[in-house]
Write a structure and sequence with these properties.
This protein is an alpha/beta fold and 603 residues long. The chain has 3 domains: 241 residues, P-loop containing nucleotide triphosphate hydrolases (Rossmann fold, 3-Layer(aba) Sandwich); 197 residues, P-loop containing nucleotide triphosphate hydrolases (Rossmann fold), CATH 3.40.50; 121 residues. It contains 22 helices and 15 strands. Strands 3-4-2-5-8-1-9 form a 7-stranded parallel β-sheet, sandwiched between helices. Strands 10, 11, 12, 13, 14 and 15 form a 6-stranded parallel β-sheet that branches. Strands 6-7 form a two-stranded antiparallel sheet. Helix 18 runs parallel beside helix 22. The longest helix is centred in the last third of the chain and has 48 residues. The N and C termini lie far apart (63 Å).
Length: 603
């Protein structure tokens, strides 16, 4: 991991280049993109274009979105471009870093994939302002996706990208694939995607049969250039390096945060903890401060919801589109099972969402509304709400900002830091812990159980920290073992997909490589289309059988926690099945060729 202060290697050159841009009209600014493309085509490297590209994107960010990236953010974007994981505090700063790196990478002409759960609106706006073609995958029909992937920048979730990858490798005709080769990806909220979801499987199922699957981690490792941005990366720098080869660059915040992170409160048992937490929420509610409680589990969330409701402190409903849209309003109480990814809590409430909510309440339907009527109604509602929203926001800040309370300590420190980040720069945080929490499980003396007040003592704190470090090591070790198991199948999948692509593009040569040269006269008599169709049917039939046998093996090892001592045996068994599949494939193709009658009509 790098030092906390990024090295200032580019800021001077960027500033010098940027001084020449301020006087340009918007169209002239966008026109500079073509000049950078031409320089790249003439042989200049992206590193040689970096200063001019970043200066251009910084000026466009200011004009299009009213945000001017800081020097630290420029350096972080350079690190991301060179294949690092950047830890960046603040949603706006992170968006600026992603945008700078995406714009530069797009000049290569090979496509940049921005992997995001929220559509990356800042990146979309700035890159389009500069004349790049930007497409979003969300909601696109299959026939529109090829054009989306041909764009300079393509934005979508990891599920969208990995699903299209699997579909592309099941195509039956040349030209059906929608993706280009996986070249450059920038992952937003990267710790959740790369670490927490790294072993999640993305599958394709046809009529109840799983015909393809890939883990999130294995999909992302296909990219020639992978990088990411997140608010919490430094604590897991070793994991990013080990699993993905990504160094971590920590970017100092533009201004020191005023958030207050209070020491933990430890209780004898969970019931004393819940009572204290509900009492604290009541106090903050009476003071008018918004509160978010992160339960840590569904069971804890249900118990807390019941306790809060009995005190007439029922948590507010969370709209699915904007889970925390109301969470920053005065007196709001929000109960989460776990921290919400990649979302900033806006003090006073999310004004855009509040405006949409008002228009919806009036009976207007965004789908049925004619032309721009919906957008105009939302804009009018926003203007009407703006004065009151400003007053509410100022009041919440004066009261001390947002309060975030954790009902359980989270084993990875990274997740706890993410929880605290919800409070933003003005709020405060505190964790409530009991000695019978799953993570702690410390023995409680009988007389201590009668104590409802917080328990203090350095021995308890040290014991808890020891338990957490042990839990962190166990989580990391299981993840690494899981990646090792997934890599076994990844080798075979890559070999099979490459061979299947050969069948699509040159079926005669591909089938000869499997069945042998003696079949060449017959294959030529059959013709390209017939050979391709028959070969793909044989290939997929054997591959699906292999997948089913592999699924049983893999899920058994996964359920046992991916035991390290079983890895060598698992690799051998999978290899045996793969070689058996290849032999069966050759046999199947040879048998089908021998039964083919060139005199028999095929239509």
């Amino acid at each position: 991991m790098s030092s906390a202060q990024p090295r200032k290697r580019h800021a001077g050159a960027i500033e010098e280049s940027g001084q020449r841009l301020a006087a340009l009209a918007d169209t002239e600014l966008a026109g500079r993109t073509q000049g950078l493309r031409e320089r790249r085509a003439a042989g200049e490297s992206l590193d040689e274009l970096l200063a001019d590209a970043f200066a251009l994107a910084r000026e466009a960010s200011w004009r299009a979105e009213g945000y001017r990236p800081s020097e630290n953010e420029l350096e972080a974007a350079a690190a991301v471009h060179h294949g690092s994981m950047a830890e960046v505090k603040g949603r706006a700063a992170a968006a600026a870093v992603v945008t700078l790196a995406a714009y530069l990478g797009a000049l290569d002409g090979r496509g940049v994939h921005v992997i995001s759960g929220n559509g990356a609106p800042h990146t979309v706006a700035v890159c389009r302002f500069l004349g790049l073609e930007v497409e979003c995958l969300d909601g696109l029909e299959l026939d529109a996706r090829q054009a989306a992937y041909a764009a300079d920048v393509t934005v979508g979730s990891v599920g969208e990208f990995s699903g299209d990858h699997l579909r592309d490798n099941l195509c039956t005709e040349p030209g059906e694939q929608v993706q280009r080769d996986p070249h450059r990806a920038i992952v937003i909220d990267a710790d959740r995607v790369l670490l927490d979801s790294g072993l999640d499987e993305r599958s394709l199922e046809v009529e109840g049969e799983r015909v393809a699957f890939i883990t999130v981690g294995e999909y992302l490792r296909l990219y020639a250039h992978l990088s990411g941005v997140t608010a919490t990366a430094a604590t897991d720098a070793d994991e990013f390096a080990h699993l993905y080869g990504l160094p971590v660059e920590v970017v100092p915040a533009a201004a020191p945060a005023g958030r207050r992170d209070h020491p933990d409160l430890m209780f004898a048992d969970m019931f004393a903890k819940y009572e204290a937490l509900v009492e604290a929420v009541a106090g903050y509610y009476d003071a008018g401060r918004p509160v978010i409680i992160v339960a840590g589990s569904g069971v804890t969330a249900a118990l807390l919801a019941d306790g809060l409701t009995r005190r007439d402190l029922a948590p507010g409903l969370m709209p699915p589109q904007r889970p925390l849209g109301r969470a920053g309003r005065r007196g709001a109480i929000t109960l989460l099972t776990e921290p919400v990814p990649d979302i900033e809590v806006i003090l006073g409430g999310d004004l855009d969402w509040l405006a949409e909510e008002r228009v919806l309440a009036s009976g207007m339907d965004p789908v049925l509304s004619a032309n721009d009527a919906w957008a105009e109604a939302v804009a009018a509602a926003r203007q009407e709400l703006l004065p009151r929203w400003r007053r509410d926001r100022e009041n919440v800040i004066k009261l001390g900002g947002l309060v975030v309370l954790g009902a359980e300590r989270l084993a990875p420190r990274r997740l706890e830091l993410r929880l605290r980040e919800l409070a933003g720069e003005y709020g405060e945080t505190q964790m409530y812990v009991s000695m019978d929490d799953d993570l702690v499980r410390l023995r409680v003396p009988t007389r201590a159980k009668k104590n409802r007040a917080p328990i203090r003592g350095w021995l308890i704190a040290r014991a808890f920290e020891s338990r957490r470090k042990t839990a962190e090591r166990e989580v990391a070790a299981r993840r690494r073992r899981g990646f090792a198991y997934a890599a076994v199948y990844a080798e075979h999948r890559a070999a099979y997909y490459a061979q299947r692509r050969d069948v699509l593009t040159d079926p005669l040569a591909a089938v000869l490589a499997v069945a042998g040269p003696d079949h060449e006269p017959l294959l030529r008599a059959m013709g390209t289309d017939l050979v391709r169709g028959g070969a793909l049917g044989s290939f997929d039939e054997q591959w699906f059988r292999y997948l089913e046998s592999l699924r049983v093996l893999y899920e058994g090892q996964r359920d046992e926690g991916f035991p390290e001592h079983e890895l060598a045996s698992y690799r051998e068994r999978v290899e045996v099945r793969f070689q058996m599949m290849r032999r069966d494939l050759a046999t199947t193709i040879a048998e089908r060729l021998s039964s083919f009658d060139p005199e028999q009509p095929t239509g």
